[in-house]
Structure to design on (360 residues):
């Protein structure tokens, strides 16, 4: 819950009187989001009778971690069950941002059907609630041993909404979750370290910027409508001209708050020098950086990753035009935790298949 929602719930449950709600909310907030407690009895500065009333009416239990995997490169992936049949994956990636990034999911499944994305092969089940989104951060903090939140050596410094689902189709819950995640007396992650990635839900871009002040990432992957229609089908509804106009109007856009454009490198599809030059023209005048993402294979995928030399040549054209274009190092491939590989169904794979994917 947000602070306001928590205060209202405490009064409604007769845990406290209305004039005490703000004080009690502040008290509980620090225990839950700063200390990470999961038992009301641990709240030593709360009266025993009040703790008992809280325990009768509320729970602090985490969702069930169905599966936990650690990659050879230190990435971690959790399959989390929020309710029967409601599962999503969350991934921690070390050495991203200031220390490490948590890739959270906003939906179970996805409606976008991007042809290169494994997650898109699973039908949408439902939106995740704000609490279920926040719980992903709490579970990662539990596993990394990062309570209380103000630890100077913490490894989770950034949150990216780049997991399962399209965040802008669940904006209300994403915005509420960000309010909780960024609260200075709780999880205390700066909004400048929270990035929301969208495939281009144009009507919601302005609201995202105004409501959340999130850093913006665009899942682009093509420089013309014909190809993007194939790779990212939402482009048929919101073509590139509309998308770029909305990006240029994004609240707070500046050289200090650049847009990140994500571009997956697909051999023989979108990786030619002509495509790189077209990308430079498309982004002209937009404060931006371009993340080049080597394609991460998954069982049954129709694409192959571009050759490394091709990727470097593509990056060189973009760099020469004055844009930063880091080539994202594939992380967590051996546990299917890399970009585009998340899927909530627990699919058992032979070890030989995982090794093949990790090596490709």
């Amino acid at each position: 819950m947000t602070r306001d929602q928590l205060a209202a719930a405490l009064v409604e449950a007769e845990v406290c009187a209305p004039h005490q709600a703000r004080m009690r909310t502040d008290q509980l907030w620090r225990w839950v989001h700063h200390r990470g407690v999961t038992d009301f009895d641990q709240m030593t500065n709360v009266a025993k009778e009040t703790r008992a009333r809280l325990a009768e009416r509320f729970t602090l239990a985490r969702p069930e971690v169905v599966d936990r995997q650690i990659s050879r490169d230190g990435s971690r992936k959790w399959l989390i069950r929020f309710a029967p049949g409601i599962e999503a994956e969350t991934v921690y990636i070390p050495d991203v941002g200031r220390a490490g990034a948590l890739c959270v999911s906003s939906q179970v499944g996805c409606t976008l059907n991007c042809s290169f994305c494994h997650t898109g092969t699973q039908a949408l089940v439902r939106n995740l609630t704000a609490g279920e989104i926040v719980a992903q951060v709490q579970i990662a903090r539990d596993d990394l041993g990062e309570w209380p939140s103000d630890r100077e050596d913490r490894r989770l410094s950034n949150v990216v909404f780049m997991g399962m689902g399209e965040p802008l189709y669940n904006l209300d819950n994403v915005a509420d979750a960000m309010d909780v995640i960024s609260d200075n007396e709780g999880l205390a992650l700066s909004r400048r370290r929270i990035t929301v990635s969208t495939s281009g839900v144009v009507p919601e871009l302005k609201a995202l910027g105004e409501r959340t002040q999130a850093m913006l990432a665009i899942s682009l992957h093509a420089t013309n409508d014909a190809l993007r229609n194939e790779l990212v089908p939402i482009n048929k509804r919101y073509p590139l001209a509309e998308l770029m106009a909305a990006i240029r109007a994004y609240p707070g856009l500046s050289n200090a708050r650049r847009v990140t454009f994500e571009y997956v490198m697909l051999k023989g599809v979108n990786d030619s020098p002509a495509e790189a030059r077209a990308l430079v023209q498309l982004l002209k005048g937009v404060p931006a950086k371009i993340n080049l993402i080597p394609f991460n294979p998954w069982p049954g995928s129709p694409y192959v990753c571009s050759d490394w030399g091709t990727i470097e040549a593509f990056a060189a054209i973009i760099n020469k035009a004055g844009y930063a274009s880091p080539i994202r190092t594939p992380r967590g491939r051996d546990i299917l935790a890399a970009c585009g590989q998340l899927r909530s169904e627990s699919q058992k794979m032979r070890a030989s298949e995982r090794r093949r994917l990790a090596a490709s």
Q: What stands out?
A: The chain has a mean pLDDT of 90.
